[in-house]
Design a protein that fits this description.
The structure holds 2 protein chains of 2 kinds. Chain A is an alpha+beta fold. Among the domains of chain A are: 88-207, no CATH class; 429-467 and 642-787, no CATH class; 495-616, no CATH class. In chain A, 52% of the residues lie in helices and 19% in strands. Chain A contains 22 helices and 22 strands. A 6-stranded mixed β-barrel of chain A has the order 3-4-9-6-8-7. A 6-stranded mixed barrel of chain A has the order 13-14-20-17-19-18. A 4-stranded antiparallel beta sheet of chain A has the order 2-10-1-11, covered by helices on one side. In chain A, β7 and β8 (161-172) form a beta hairpin. In chain A, α6 (251-292) runs parallel beside α18 and α8 (307-347) packs antiparallel against α9. In chain A, 46% of the residues are buried. By secondary structure, chain B is an alpha/beta fold. Chain B has a single domain (58-85, 101-257), classed as 3-Layer(aba) Sandwich (Rossmann fold), CATH 3.40.50. Chain B has helices spanning 15-21, 73-80, 103-113, 129-137, 146-152, 168-180, 198-215, and strands spanning 29-42, 45-58, 62-66, 88-93, 96-97, 114-117, 186-190, 218-223, 234-239, 242-248. The longest helix of chain B is centred in the last third of the chain and has 18 residues, at 198-215. Chain B is globular, with a radius of gyration of 18 Å. Classes of the chains: A alpha+beta, B alpha/beta. Chain A binds chain B through residues 1-4, 6-7, 10-11, 14, 295-296, 298-306, 309, 388-390, 393, 395, 781, 785-787, and chain B through 74-75, 78, 81, 83-84, 104, 107-112, 114-116, 118, 120, 122-127, 131-132, 134-136, 138-139, 164, 178-179, 190. The complex binds adenosine-5'-diphosphate and magnesium ion (MG). Residues 40, 42, 47, 49, 67, 69-75 of chain B line the site of adenosine-5'-diphosphate.
């Protein structure tokens, strides 16, 4: 139909602004879809290729010390395809000219060649020479953060002894896509680094000659993971095993996976909202279009155009809008995807990470938007089918206005004529008014959804730092220390307050589940690290029994008063049954707290400490740190200020970016919905408005009719939108389940106010457009035109 | 070739041929309505729009149906044109019973054989005059060129104007061009001058007359304006849903001679 196509194009042009608004909303939906699904797909393929190529292990196990001969037993496990032992040790790294030392992890490479499993990818330089004891390779992120170059010399402290090493290579490892210190809170390459040494170089300094303390396994094809883990655990148990963990629980892997889950989630929620809104806007516009063109449609029917030929016109119309939206969305999604990839490249270290949009996602995006458009058109086509050509030839009867019970109310309000007209019009088109109401409330809710993350992060920051980390430094020891440490620490000049902590690696077991984690024992007086929940309420540590996080209780299917079986993974490796005395809804998802004395009693030892929280005189900060690091039993010192910094740089930055994308999109929705509503309101009533103008109503008065209606709808929509936004945000927080943090659920008053003010601003802008539009309206033409 | 002799005639009789082979005197009846009624029910109220219409219309005729507003003219015309169906009775188009036809068949009937002209022109505002005509020629079998149809109504110089840039009379002439461009067998006009002033109305009627004479198209014009009846071959008068009078004009007036 050539002529109908021409009509299509001219109709597009005449409705360009309305259609643009819809295209923008569709584009937002499609771009969030493309952005998140393609990023997930890119991460997924990049990661699995990386893993396959560099033989990332399936199972990992840390242990105290096992003679190399023990490893021979692994070969007898049918599930194990390949294994490799090595030495992993915590170190401290001194970089020339750097202000302070850095916490590090040294991993052994075989004496010759690269590792068999978890192979390192040499970015620059080379592997250390065979059996070299003075050459090392360092992780790329660490090298970049500390300005290390090939050929530089670093000092490392291994168990209190210093060694000089030359950097001969800069590398990446599939074990450290996300490079975070063991037990650390956040990735921070300025304060943590991974280095690799030849095994022979490490054996002497670690007293692990002919022995290993870490082993990785690649499983045989189709092998059962649980049975492999069980067999490995039973072999390594006598050697101080901390329990074998599957790839799923490997820290870096788990973090990347949870990030992908989050993206997947975003790829479902946001596009659904956007496409629903756009389908709904398109539906509104089409309904209006069909009703205003009913005489044209009737004429076409009279001349023998079939219903299909006419419906096809509207389908084409909607599909074209959808298609343009999809194309713009794909472009935008691609552009944002590049940005997001760039951001991920800073957190996730891959040999190469490129963003690509798979064909399937491209197609799906088009199908989705065309689907949303078809949904919108279905309703309109029903209208065409119901249209009787003979009927349609008569001019549309005036809408029926009758008196209703509400009229009595309005009468009693003694409203003047204009508000009365507005009320009647709003009330007599309940379907249309309801649609606008839903549209505007969705805009409000999306604005809340887009900005509440900021509230959550701010609250999390408050909880994590201002309230529960009142210490300036955390010092971690290499081995548990006895109570004498307290005096030793107080004797250092500048240390003002000390709280001791004892962390014990355990396997927590309930009826059905078990979990490898650390139990944290603190003193009943623990002023430097108050226990604060997500609602920023302080909790007290029970004198007896465990305080565990609610999330962990859920995972282990525990309730208050239940008994948790604790298998201690060090020392005498006792198995203890301890009662759960209290639950806490805290930010760190998986923690178990206990009183330090009561833990000592349970473990039948005298109270000891593996770390301490310190409050110091800030002026003496440097000398305190130096003094602490000088002590041989100190593993490393972490400054709270650095943690805050890296929180702001990583998590907060990440959320800020997401928020700005969301905000951008939600503002588009708000404007799109309100503008379309206003335009349709004008179009539907152009005759009425023109008549009023001719009857002598002023430009302002006539404008106020449309604006008042919009204002009434907007004001009603705002509280509804708040409620929907609250619900959507709640759902999002529950889906947002990071490896390291749980998000508190907070929507601040300012977020509600922000959402309302954006919508009101959009309304004001729309009012201005309406004013201008009515000013330009030629009433005589409007009355003559039978569109 | 005998008309109506073959009852298994295909749905589209070869009228074009017939038009040239039959003499005017024995022109066959194109439409034949018998006991036609149309009843509308609006809530409790029952409206008899047509009450037992008997009617025969012949090829090449120019027929005016006269009657006051509400007398059922449009209803009758819509039924003849296949836009509507009668409540009881039969309408035959040659030997095809329109009262038994399905909506799809009626659609095909309109597409092949009927041209409509409406009181309010019903042009597509976003298409130019030429495009409005082309819209219909695109779905016709052996149409005129759209330009030719516009020339026939004297609007060649306005081809590229949009409806909003044309006067009412010009718009109505575009509508006529649109209706005749597919060489319809019948041209049905519902108050074609209803929205026009006298002078413009006359131009439009002249156009209809010209088309009727040159194309030999059965033309039915409905109006409440008795003066227009003077240019018809035959005048049918309606009141309250019934045909009350039939007149044959001995001498047809030309539209310019009409006065109202
Ligand atoms: N769809 C309809 N529903 C109810 N009544 C109708 C409908 N269409 C026409 N009528 C009634 O049928 C009668 C004849 O209408 P119509 O054929 O339009 O008259 P005319 O064209 O002669 O003015 C009128 O009384 C009109 O009110
Ligand atoms: Mg009528």
């Amino acid at each position: 139909m050539r002529m109908l196509d021409r009509k299509l194009i001219r109709d597009f042009v005449s409705m360009k602004w309305q259609l643009l608004a819809i295209v923008a909303v569709i584009a937002c939906g499609i771009s969030t879809f493309v952005l998140s699904t393609s990023t997930v797909a890119s991460l997924e393929t990049t990661r699995s290729q990386y893993y396959a190529r560099y033989r990332f292990a399936d199972v990992f196990c840390d242990l105290k010390r096992a003679p190399e001969s023990v490893a021979l037993q692994f070969a007898a496990i049918p599930e194990v395809g390949q294994y490799e032992t090595r030495i992993d040790i915590p170190i401290r790294i001194e970089i020339p000219f750097a202000e302070k030392s850095v916490q590090g992890l040294a991993l052994s490479l075989p004496n010759e060649g690269n590792s068999q499993l978890n192979e390192v990818h040499i970015r620059r330089g080379r592997l250390p020479d065979t059996s070299s004891s003075s050459e090392t390779i360092v992780s790329e992120a660490f090298a970049a953060a500390s300005g290390l170059q090939l050929g530089d010399k670093i000092q490392v402290t291994i168990y209190g002894q210093q060694y000089s090493l030359f950097v001969v290579g800069i590398a990446l490892s599939p074990e450290f896509i996300y490079e975070i210190a063991p037990g650390g809170l956040l990735p921070d390459s300025r304060s943590f680094g991974v280095i690799w040494l030849r095994r022979s170089a490490m054996e002497g300094s670690t007293k692990l000659d002919g022995a290993f303390n870490h082993v990785s396994f690649l499983l045989a094809r189709n092998a059962s993971l649980p049975s492999a883990i069980e067999k490995i655990d039973s072999i390594l148990k006598p050697y101080g095993s901390l329990g074998a963990i599957a790839r799923e629980d490997q820290r870096s892997h788990r973090f990347v996976s949870s990030e992908m889950d989050e993206l997947r989630n975003m790829g479902r929620v946001a596009p659904t909202i956007f496409l629903c809104v756009s389908s709904f806007l398109l539906n509104m516009v089409l309904a209006r279009m069909i009703s205003s063109q009913r005489e044209q449609i009737a004429a076409l029917t009279a001349f023998g155009f079939t219903t299909w030929e006419i419906s096809r016109f509207f389908l084409k119309f909607a599909w074209s809008v959808a298609f343009v939206g999809a194309v713009v969305g794909l472009g935008l999604g691609f552009y944002l995807g590049l940005g997001l990839t760039e951001m991920y490249s800073r957190f996730f270290h891959f040999p190469s990470f490129t963003f690509h949009v798979p064909w399937s996602i491209l197609l799906l995006a088009i199908v989705l938007s065309v689907g949303a458009a078809s949904l919108a058109v279905a309703n309109g086509i029903r209208g065409i089918l119901l249209l009787q050509p003979a009927e349609a030839m008569r001019p549309e009867p005036p809408p029926r206005y009758g008196s209703s019970t509400l009229d009595a109310l309005w009468q009693s309000l003694k409203l003047s004529t204009i508000p009365k007209m507005v009320m009647r019009h709003t009330w007599r088109n309940p379907k249309r008014s309801l649609m606008s109401l839903v549209g505007i409330s969705l805009a409000v809710s999306v604005l809340i959804l887009g900005s509440f993350m900021q509230d959550a992060i701010y609250s999390l920051f408050e909880t994590m730092f201002s309230q529960s980390r009142k210490y300036d430094l955390q010092v971690t020891f290499l081995e548990p220390q006895d109570s004498a440490t307290l005096h030793e620490l107080y004797s250092i000049e500048g240390i003002m307050e000390v709280n001791l902590i004892r962390a014990v690696p355990i396997r927590a077991r309930s009826l059905h589940r078990d979990r490898l984690l650390s139990i944290i024992a603190i003193d009943s007086k623990h002023d430097l690290s108050p226990l604060v929940d997500l609602q920023q309420q302080q909790a007290t540590l029970p004198a007896d029994g465990l305080l565990i996080s609610r999330k962990l209780a859920e995972v282990l299917e525990l309730q208050m008063g239940n008994t948790l079986t604790i298998e201690v993974l060090e020392g005498k490796r006792m198995t203890l049954d301890v009662q759960v005395s209290k639950l806490i809804d805290d930010a760190a998802g998986e923690t178990i707290y206990i009183n330090r004395n009561s833990l000592a009693t349970l473990m039948q030892e005298s109270p000891s400490a593996t770390a301490a929280y310190l409050r110091i005189d800030k002026r003496l900060r440097q000398s305190v740190i130096r003094e602490l690091e000088r002590r041989p039993h100190v593993s490393h010192v972490v400054e709270t200020a650095d943690l805050k910094q890296s929180f702001l740089k990583t998590i907060a930055e990440n959320v800020r970016r997401m928020r700005s994308i969301n905000l951008f999109f939600s503002i588009i929705i708000a404007i799109g919905v309100i503008y379309s509503t206003a335009r349709i309101s004008i179009a539907e009533r152009s005759r009425e408005l023109a008549t009023l103008r001719i009857l002598g109503f002023t430009h302002q008065e006539v404008t106020s009719i449309v604006v008042l209606e919009l204002a009434v709808l907007t004001l009603c929509a705002i509280p509804i939108g708040w409620a929907i936004g609250y619900g959507l945000s709640y759902m999002t927080v529950n889906a947002f389940d990071r490896e390291l943090f749980r998000m508190p659920f907070v929507v601040s008053i300012s977020t509600y106010a922000f959402a309302a003010s954006v919508v009101l601003a959009a309304m004001t802008a729309a009012s201005f457009l309406i004013y201008r539009f009515i000013g330009k309206m030629n009433f005589v033409d409007v009355l003559k035109a039978r569109d | 070739m005998e008309v109506g002799s073959n009852s298994s005639l295909p749905a589209i009789p070869p009228f074009a041929k017939r038009r040239f082979t039959l003499s005017e005197k024995i022109s066959p009846s194109v439409f034949r309505a018998q006991q036609l009624t149309k009843v509308y029910r609006v809530g409790e109220v029952i409206v008899y729009a047509l009450r037992g219409i008997e009617l025969e219309l012949f090829a090449g005729e120019f027929v005016v149906i006269l009657g006051p507003s509400g007398s059922g003219k449009s209803t009758l015309l819509n039924i003849l044109g296949g836009l509507d169906t009668p409540s009881t009775g039969t309408v035959k188009y040659f030997d095809h019973d329109l009262s038994l036809a399905s909506p799809a068949e009626l659609n095909a009937f309109r597409r092949k054989h009927v041209g409509f002209v409406f009181q309010f022109y019903n042009l597509i505002p976003s298409l130019t005059a030429l495009e409005n005509v082309s819209l219909i020629t695109e779905i016709a079998d052996k149409p005129f060129a759209a330009e030719e149809a516009l020339a026939l109504v004297g609007l060649s110089h306005r081809q590229h104007h949009f409806p909003s840039q044309l006067s009412g009379g010009e718009q109505q002439r575009v509508a006529i061009a649109r209706a005749i461009a597919k060489r319809p067998d019948v041209l049905l006009c519902d108050e074609p001058t209803g929205a026009l002033d006298v002078q413009t109305g006359i131009t439009v009627l002249e156009t209809l007359k010209k088309v009727n004479e040159e194309q030999k198209t059965l033309t039915v014009v409905i109006t409440h304006n008795a003066t227009i009846a003077e240019m018809a071959d035959r005048v049918l008068t309606m009141r309250d849903g019934a045909l009350i009078k039939e007149e044959r004009n001995v001498s047809k007036k030309s539209p310019v001679e009409l006065k109202w």
